[in-house]
Specification:
The complex is a heterodimer of chains A (251) and B (345).
Chain A: E1 5-14, E2 17-27, E3 32-37, H1 43-50, E4 58-63, E5 66-67, H2 73-78, E6 81-84, H3 96-100, H4 115-128, H5 148-161, E7 166-170, H6 178-193, E8 197-201, H7 205-211, E9 214-219, E10 222-228, H8 234-247
Parallel strand pairs in A: 3-8, 3-9, 6-7, 7-8
Antiparallel strand pairs in A: 1-2, 1-4, 4-5, 9-10
Chain B: H1 12-17, H2 21-48, H3 50-53, H4 56-81, H5 89-106, H6 113-142, H7 146-165, E1 170-171, H8 180-185, E2 187-188, E3 192-193, H9 194-212, H10 214-224, H11 226-231, H12 236-262, E4 264-265, H13 274-283, H14 295-314, H15 321-344
Antiparallel strand pairs in B: 1-4, 2-3
Classes of the chains: A alpha/beta (251), B mainly alpha (345).
């Protein structure tokens, strides 16, 4: 069976800076892969290549075994990639419904917005998918008034609405309360149960260990190693991560 | 943020439709603010100069002259919401008319004046749109701040106008024989100026484009957070170029109607409209930082700007007072908008 997503010898440089070097990365069908690495290791660059935001300097990207040239953000979305960005990618001066449909507004063939439908869908999503019941959350609310967890909820609901096959979560627990983090972990498990795939990026080794089937460690733009989560204990993983940070080698 | 009573949570579905004064004020605050300023000033004008402001003539005069810059203030609102600026539109007004004159001069073979004038009119619109496109390209391709880029193009196109027209002004008396003259600057029923109809149509189309079309949605998102817009797959460069093309198009249109109105071409056409157009946009509550702003606010802002000059004179002050009162009202309104925005958070 083909991988859901595969990167072959992908490199990316920004001028003189080599951000990624010969990355070979696979995401299986219905697999949750945890991506670990220190700040500046290249995690964000890697996911921005998968989402079509950056084009790789060299290498190939394959979706379901098919090579895709010139991957762009709209193309990646067509292929079922949805991303919850570290920076959340929200427009805070705009209303909730405009944020949910950011860049993919429901329109008729003349490009006119179907505002009532977007409002209703937003309301349904906030209630059913995210369990937002606070009456302060309304499709017409402005996103700047939301808490960190609520903003994260908006970013996640947005990824879910469009029937993603691959969900990428970039540092999703950043700035969340304990309760909100627990809800997020449940959400990642739901992705698995729904038969979809995900790439989960986090600083927190414990979070990644708890939800990922496989863990890929990135260091200084290269893949330093990977583990099947059930073959390794959390303690050993922690030790290895510290060793990578110090020496650049896992063992 | 405020959390309402726990007991209301179950009823949130009902709450959604219920009228909330707070939310209404939050959503429409800037428009209500500028409407308040508008009616407040109107009442002051009526009390201070009832003989002028209770007669329809003064309103016909406003409707005849305000559209010249208000028509440009509508697309300028979109440019500013997108977080950009355009200072070159007064020169585009004049360049559009140069294209008009050149086309008219080059088509003596066309016997039908209406056809010839129509062709020249289209040439003006195309020229304006092209100049807007060039502005946009300079800004997105080279990453030059639009304020700086359009200071440059403003001089360049004014220079082009002077070179191409050899600095000469001239009569347009022939346009009166074309159907386009009454269609653009005629008087309906002998009193109501046609350009006001054009302004209303452009304002309505502008509102739909900004609030009910994908283009407008992207304009707001780019001005709010260009990085988010790009991550979510919006082609921010293309949308910004389109916004500059729109203001180019409508500047040329405004240049034609302003020239038709006086049946004369001046190479300095548009020079008096820079600040009144910008003031209409900011008076109307559009944020210079981008991401927020309304067409209604700009529309009302333009009429306040248009009324101040007439009012200062009608009230019995000398013309010297006009600019002082302009400045005062603009500064106070912008402070009001800043205050309303803070309150809404």
């Amino acid at each position: 069976m083909d991988y859901r997503l595969e990167l072959r010898n992908v490199s990316k440089s920004f001028g003189e800076v080599q951000a990624l070097e010969n990355i070979n990365f696979q995401l299986g069908q219905n697999e949750i892969v945890g991506l670990l690495g220190d700040n500046g290791a290249g995690k964000s660059t890697l996911i921005k290549i998968i989402t079509g935001f950056y084009q790789p300097t060299s290498g190939e990207i394959l979706f379901n075994g098919q090579k895709i040239d010139h991957l762009t953000v709209p193309r990646a979305r067509q292929l079922g990639v949805e991303t919850v960005y570290q920076e959340r990618a929200l427009a805070e001066l705009q209303t909730l419904w405009r944020n949910i449909f950011l860049g993919r507004e429901l329109t008729n063939k003349w490009g006119l917005l179907d505002v009532p439908k977007m409002r209703d869908e937003t309301y349904r999503l906030m209630n059913q998918s995210m369990g937002f019941t606070s009456s302060a959350i309304d499709p017409e609310s402005y996103v700047r008034t939301f808490s960190g967890g609520e903003k994260q909820g908006v970013a996640i609901v947005r990824a879910l609405y469009f029937d993603a096959e691959i969900i990428i979560l970039d540092e999703p627990t950043m700035g969340l309360s304990l309760k909100e983090t627990a809800r997020l972990i449940t959400f990642v498990r739901d992705i698995k149960r729904a038969g979809k795939s995900a790439v989960f990026i986090d600083h927190n080794v414990v979070h990644v260990y708890n939800v990922a089937d496989r863990i890929v460690v990135i260091d200084r733009g290269r893949i330093a190693g990977e583990f099947i989560t059930r073959d390794i204990t959390l303690d050993v993983l922690m030790e290895k991560m510290i060793r990578v940070a110090e020496t650049g080698n896992l063992d | 943020m405020t959390h309402t009573d726990e007991s209301t949570h179950g009823a949130s579905r009902a709450n959604r439709k219920a009228f909330s004064l707070k939310r209404f004020a939050r959503t429409y605050g800037p428009q209500l603010g500028i409407l308040g300023v508008f009616f407040g000033l109107w009442i002051i004008f009526i009390i201070a100069a009832p003989t002028t402001f209770l007669k329809p003539q003064i309103y016909n005069a406003f409707m005849s002259t305000v559209p010249f810059f208000a028509i440009m203030a509508i697309p300028l609102t979109m440019v500013v919401i997108a977080g950009e600026m355009d200072l070159s539109f007064p020169s585009i007004m004049a360049m559009g008319m140069v294209a008009f004159l050149l086309t008219y001069g080059a088509t003596p073979g066309i016997a039908n004046i209406s056809v010839r004038v129509m062709l020249s009119f289209l040439a003006a619109l195309v020229t304006g749109t092209l100049i807007g496109w060039i502005n946009g390209l300079i800004i997105v391709r080279f990453g030059i701040p639009s304020l700086v880029a359009t200071i440059g193009t403003q001089f360049f196109w004014r220079g082009a106008v002077l070179v191409l027209s050899q600095g000469k002004s001239g009569t347009l008396s022939y346009v009166k024989e074309s159907f386009l003259h009454p269609a653009l600057v005629g008087k309906i029923g002998g009193t109501f100026p046609t350009q006001m109809i054009w302004l209303i149509v452009i304002a309505i189309v502008g509102w739909v484009l900004l609030n009910r079309h994908k283009f407008g949605a992207h304009i707001y998102l780019i001005g709010d957070n260009a990085n988010s817009a790009e991550l979510m797959g919006i082609n921010t460069k293309r949308v910004r170029v389109q916004a500059f093309m729109l203001i180019g198009l409508f500047s040329a249109f405004a240049g034609v109607i302003a020239s038709f109105h006086v049946v004369y071409f001046w190479p300095s056409l548009g020079e008096g409209h820079l600040l009144s157009t910008l003031a209409s946009v900011f008076l109307g509550g559009t944020s210079v930082f981008g991401g927020t702003g309304t067409i209604l606010g700009t529309f009302i802002g333009a009429f306040i700007i248009g009324a101040i000059e007439a009012a200062t004179v009608a009230v019995g002050l000398t013309g010297f007072w006009t600019e002082l009162i302009y400045g005062l009202i603009i500064v106070l309104s912008v402070i009001m908008h800043a205050y309303l925005r803070k309150r809404a958070e």
